[in-house]
Amino acid sequence: MAASILDTGAPRRILLATDLSARGDRALERAVELSQESGAELVILHVYEEFDESSLTYGSRALPSWSRPTNAVNVMKQRIRHALRADVGDAIEKAKVLVEEGHPAEVIENVAAARQVDLVVTGIAREGPFSSRPVVLGKTVEQLLRKSALPILVVLNRPRGPYQHVVVATDFSRPSAHALQMALRFFSEQKLFLLHAFDVPYETQVEDAARHAAQVREGHMEELSAFLESVFLPPQDRHRLVPILEPGQPRQIVREYAQMHGADLVVLGTQGRGALMEALIGSAAKSILASLPCDALIVRGPPK
């Protein structure tokens, strides 16, 4: 039975979850760019786990206890707006800025549900600017990936304009079909490079390895055709798909393709809810995410 898409069109409401750190400016810029491109409402959320009014400062001087504001959260909102205006200018005037107290992942999930958000945008950090070590997701992002049913855009790189080279990693599963549909919805004009990595069994045991690999690839091409027939795809969208089938491990193939061809976004489908990261996004998707040189859109689903 063909999978069906639940909604059409670009996101209508985008939630930026930010910790206001220096590394969060890239996610902020991308969220602003996406909201302007799609006309979506932008909600900027900062969550603090415990608020201490005595930590409020004006410049480098702490506010005296006898003149602390009665609504310290409003002061924090004003300061956040001032800081964000320095980064993105007047675009902040159209955004809704929220400051909430609580467990970050839980608050983000609750706000996203209450505001009927279509996309969550967040940032992550690396070990260092020139490090080859894997991406450090951070506790809140990992918890979001476990808890949230919404697509999550994890921003690594500074935006250079709208996404142009979008790769959708696929293993012909239902989650990857849902991810493909979401990518078609969010990116209505770009070509989508549908990348599938496959193993070549008995490669070292056959006489003509090249011919054997070609035959295996043909088999996967047939699987790809069957996969695309099983997915609801509007006729006008089919021509935007560019299939790429390569032998190798998914993590290596996706990373190398993104590096060599300058992909600026990889879309990954995830599995259902689970207590462990592997139960959520699968070991292959987790491995890919940890090694990417570009942004990643993590799509949960589809609902069972």
Chain-wise SSE layout:
Elements (H helix, E strand, L loop, with lengths): L12 E5 L7 H14 L2 E8 L8 E2 L2 E2 L9 H17 L7 E6 L2 H11 L4 E5 L15 H9 L4 E4 L10 E4 L4 H13 L5 E7 L10 H22 L4 H4 L2 E7 L2 H12 L3 E5 L7 H15 L3 E5 L5
Parallel strand pairs: 1-2, 1-6, 2-5, 6-7, 8-9, 8-11, 9-10, 11-12
Antiparallel strand pairs: 3-4, 7-12
Helix pairs in contact: 3-4, 8-9
Explain what the structure shows.
This protein is of the alpha/beta class and 304 residues long. It has helices spanning 25-38, 72-88, 104-114, 139-147, 174-186, 209-230, 235-238, 250-261, 277-291; strands spanning 13-17, 41-48, 57-58, 61-62, 96-101, 119-123, 152-155, 166-169, 192-198, 241-247, 265-269, 295-299. α8 packs parallel to α9. β11, α9 (277-291) and β12 (295-299) form a beta-alpha-beta unit. It has nine helices and twelve strands.
